[in-house]
Amino acid sequence: MASAPDTIHMRDLQKEINGTPILGKIKRLREPSNSRLLSTAEEILLLKGSKLNGCKFPPWKSVPSDDDFLLKKGEDLFCDHHELHLSDQQCAILDGWKRPADALPPPSMRSSMDTVMSPIMDSTVPTDLVQDAASDCSVVASLCAESARVERGHPRILSLGFFPHNKHTKSPITSLNGKYVVRLNFNGCYRKVVIDDKLPVSKTDKILHVIDRNNPALLWPALLEKAYLKVRGGYDFPGSNSATDLWVLTGWIPEQILLQWRDPNARDVWKSLYNSFRYGDVMITIGTGKMDRHTEELNGLESEHDYAVLDMKETDHQKYLLLKNPWAAGTSSRSTKIPSSLEFTDTHKSSPKDSDQLVEKAPQGTFWVTMNEAFQLFESLYVNWNPGLFRFREDIHFAWRVSKDFSNTAFVDNPQFSIFGKAGEATWLLLCCHFEDAICFHTGDQATGTDLSVRGDTFGLISLYVFDTQGRRVYLREPSLQRVPHVNCGQTLLRFNPPSSSLYTVVVSGEDLESRSRNFTLSAFSESPSSLSHATQKYPFRTRITGAWASTTATAGGNPDSPIYSQNPQFRLVLRERADMALLLQTSVDSLPVHFKLLHGKGERVYAVRRIDIITDSGEHRHGSAYAELNAFLPAGKYTVICNTFQANREAEFSLMVDATSEVTLEPIPREGAGRSLMEIPGAHIGPGANRVAAPIIPKRIVRTNLVAKFKYASRPLWFDDSVQDDEVRTRSPLRMSLQLGRRAGKRILATSNQGEYADPENGVRIMDFDLDPAMLQHHDIWLVLERLSGTASGTDEHYNVQLFNSIPGAITTGAWCVWEDEW
To answer: Whole-prediction pTM value?
Structure first.
C-alpha cells in the first residue's frame, strides 16, 4: 500500500522534543480549492444536487452573518418546517420535538443528577459520545474519531463549519434565535444546511440522538448529527460507513481499505497511517462485516458495526489500536486494559510515574486490539486524510447513464477522463457518487443495536482504473496500469503513482448499479496541477448494431472449428474511404467467451473461412467482450464480420460497434435462404462402388436458386467387411457439387461449388445465386451432380441433405437420384 504524501515539505516543520510533537502549536493545513473552471453543464448538475429529501441545500457561498442568529424583537424562535423522519420504533417512544432547555440533559437522566444542568456548547472534560435508539453508528463513530483527535491536541475540524461559532477559538456557541447553519460536503461541493435546535425527546430511558455520557447537556454534537441526518433522510438513517460520514462532515478525503482483500497487510497499513495519525492528518474508523450471534459473542464485537479508532501505539514487537464502540448499550468481552508488559517506544512513551495509569481500564466502551487482530476480525478500515496535504485540487462533475445491457468487461461506454501525472508525485483520485432521495424499508427493530434498515439510496459497487493511453478513451477493462477493488459505498480512492510524466486515462467502473442515470464527482488531489478533463476519442465516426445468438434460429454456430460456424450472425461493413478502425463485440453475459473476424467477404455471407480472407480478428476468445484495432488504413469497400461464441448453441444478445476515422456503416447479412422458398431433394446418397450421383432439375420459369448439400451420416452395408470400427463409418469424404447441362462429351458445366474444389460437406457445399431458365431444356437436360473424392473403393454409403432456396415457390421440380456415369 502506498504511503501518505510527505507532510514535512508541505507544512511548517513541526517542533519536537525528544521526538514528541508540541501538539498545541500544530498549524492547521489549508485545504486546496477546485482550480478547474466548471462548464455550464457541471454548474447545472451541482444545482440539481441541491434538492434532496424534499429540502434545498444550495452550494456554500459565504459564512453567515452574526445577525442571522439574533432573536429580533417581535420574532419567534426559528422553526425548520421540514421535520426529520423517524422509524416506527422511534415514533413509538417519541415524546415530541423540544428545544434544548427541555431536551438536554435528557429527561430520563435528570432524576439521577444532583443539580439540573443547562445546555452547553463546550466542556472541559473529555467527551464520551454514544448512540442509543438511533442506528447511525457510522455517524457517531465519526464524531468520536474527530473528538479524540481534538483531545490529542489538534485543531478542531467539525466546528469549523458549524455556525454560529467563536471566531477565535472556533468553538460552537449558542444561537439566540434557535437557528443553526452547518457547512457539509456532498453532491460535488460544500453546501449550506439550515436546522433549528429542536431535538427528538424520548418518553422512555432511550435517547433518540447522540449524547455525551460525560457531558449530558452538551448540545452541538446533537445539532451536528441532526444537520447530517437531514441530508441523509432522517433519524431512521441505518448508517453507511464512517469514511463517507467524515467526508461529508469535514471534507477530509475518504479511503476504504478492505482488510480481507488480497493486497494490504498489517505492517504496510500501519506504516502508511501511524505518523500521519500522530500529526493529526488522518482520522480512522473501522467496521465489522456480517457475523452470526455466536461469532459476535466469541469475538466480543457487533455485526456490521463501525468503531472509532481513538489512539495508536506501538512497541518493538506489536502495534495496538484503541477502539471505541459508539453504541451505548454495546458490550464487549474484550479487555479494556493496556497490557501491563507494554513498553512504548513511540511518542507516547511511558515513564515509571505514569505506569499505573497505563494499566487502568480504558473508558467505558473502549478496548485495545492488535493490528493483526484488526485484520482478522474486521472487514474494512475507514480512513480520512487531511486534504491540506495537497496543494492542488481539480473536480469534474458528470452524469453516467448506467446500462446493464452488455458486459462489464468493456469500458467503451464508461465515463473516462484524461489527467496529467508527474513522475515521482502521487496523485490521489477520488470518485464520489452523489446522494439521492432516501427511501427506507424497515425489516426489524433496533433492540440489538445493529442496522436492520435497507435504504433506497444504495450505490452498488464502484471502482477506478488508470490506463497508460495518453488520455485517449479505452475499450476494455484490461490491461490497466493501476486499479482499486470495487467497493459498495459512495466513494472510492485510487492513489495513482505515475511511472512517467505523461497523460493518462482514468475510467469509472461500476458493478450491480441500477440501469439509470447517476451523478458523480471525480476529484484529483496533487502537488502539481493535474489538468483533469474528459478523455479524447481517437475515432470521430461510430456505428453500432445489435444481434443475438440463438439455437432456435440456427444462429449460434460456435467457434471457427465448428462445422456450423457459418450460421453465426454476419454483418456487412461498408467503408466509403480508407480508414483506421476499432471493433468491439459486447455480450449480455459476462461469462460467455466471444470472438469475431473481419474478412474480405465483399459484404456477403461467408461459408468457409480461408486464412487469406482474414483481415483481422479479436484473438483468443474473451469472456464478455472481444476487441481488435486496425491501424492499416483499410481501403474503401465492403467487408464481412462474423461474430461467434466459443461453444455452439450458446444463446445471448450482443452488440457490435465500429469506430473509424471515416464514415462506416454496418448492416446484418441475411441468413442462408432468407426470403426464399425452401425445397429439398430427398434420398441423396452415394453408395459403395460409386462416387457420383445425379438428379434432374426442371425449371418451369426463370428462377434464381441457391443449392446446398450437407453431410448427414455414413453407413456400411452388412455384407461389407464388418471388422471396420464404427467410428470409421462416421467419416465423410470431401464433396463437390455441380450443375451440368447434358451429359457425355457434349455436357456443359453451368456452375460448381467452391470454384470446382472438393470441400468438407459437414459445413455444406454450395452453388450460390444461379439463374435457371426453362429455355435451357430445349436441347439438353439439367443435372445436379454430387461427387465425392474417396472414389468407389471406400465401401461406405454417404447420405446428404440437399436443399434448394428458390426465389419463386414451385418454380422447380426434380427427379430421383441415380448413379452418374459419363458413358450412360
So the answer is: 0.83
